[in-house]
Design a protein that fits this description.
Rossmann fold, ten-stranded mixed beta sheet, 9 helices
Amino acid sequence: MSLIMKLPIIMEESRKAFEEIMATTGSGRYVLKEHTGRHREIAASRENILARGDNLSFMKFLMDEKDLTGKLKLIYIDPPFFSKANYGSEIKIRSDKVKKIPVMKQKAYTDAWNRGLEEYLEMLAVRLMIMRELLAEDGCIWIHLDWHAVHYIKVLMDEIFGEKNFINEVIWHYKSGGVSKRRFARKHDTLLFYAKSDKYYFEPRQEKSYNRGYKPYRFKGVKEYRDELGWYTMVNRKDVWQLDMVGRTSAERTGYVTQKPETLIERILESCTREGDLCADFFGGSGTMAAAAERMGRKWISCDIGRLATISSHKRLIAANAAYSLYDEEGDEMADEEKGRIEADISLQPALVSDKMLLRVELLSYRPYSLEQIPVEEKYLPVIKKILDKDPLQLVAYWSIDSHYEDGINKPDAYLRKENEGIKTFYEAIGSDFGPVCIKVVDVFGNSAILTVEL
């Protein structure tokens, strides 16, 4: 049977799965791990959420535990494209003590499906049904795809959201990418823009439209402008966007494979949301939507099943001074305390210039319990072992200090991230009251460990 003939079966099976999920309460269980932000009280009250886990159970968690049914103003998703490929991210480690460390590839995610396109479409269909439940009546959804499966997803979207709620097919055109002698170079992605109802919010933005030959038209009543290229008018933005991919030297580059540029998400947010609106990305990747929403004054939710994606997002949002809550799927991994060993020197002594106390914390060493926790090809493990023996702190992506740790929830006073020049291993704070100190280390591979010390 051809796939086009199977589409009604795919929809029927997906709808059954959707109805079973909706009829079950408590099917999505997530544990609050961390409150992040300059002021922990603000972070605890914000709606911003970063979560690691299966987006299916997470969306049900948002319905059951967060009462967010019908409250999201925008959903943007960048799901796997059905490319049948494995995607990795480059891990670059520099050390003065270990020479000639190769660039290592770490697995980010697999876009291969045992039952082929049928399984892929079922995976997306049931999730799109739940996303529709989460959307507000005046909300909208954007799905980022490419040539592999966009035509099939368009049919699913017409069925789930309704043909009349299809608003735009937007083409993102870029210069990057390969060439072939057997076809025209593939240089664009496709974004499908649907509304939940005819009440959707949309604010058209304008762009330059250059005159023919860049010369003035001088039409009556038409306002014309001139720049270094020539004469132009201002028109409503078209449905073909030419934007560069994230360059190798770009400040926003995280190293995460398939990272999308913030300028792309900004265009969506500025046209389809207002400041303060709640937006979500359930295939969060490196956190581009969350980062853009944070900068533009929107509230956000981002979820991804991958540890590498979560660490990329977390580092990025910490650097942006974002306030948010970090959740982890319950029972998905062993406890942080069991993942690795941390050595640190922690002391509390009178401050010399006041009647307060001085807390001093120095990170001395970190190592995972086993090389099996390192998700790289086996040929790189001898290099990792050498780094662990001679310069283990080079594996640390960032570490944090919570000087009032309680209730198993980390509320860091400070994050120390790995920069080009290395990582700062020393922290000091002056205060009149310090509780148990919690040190959390996250390594470049997404593993984490916790050390708690009673003062």
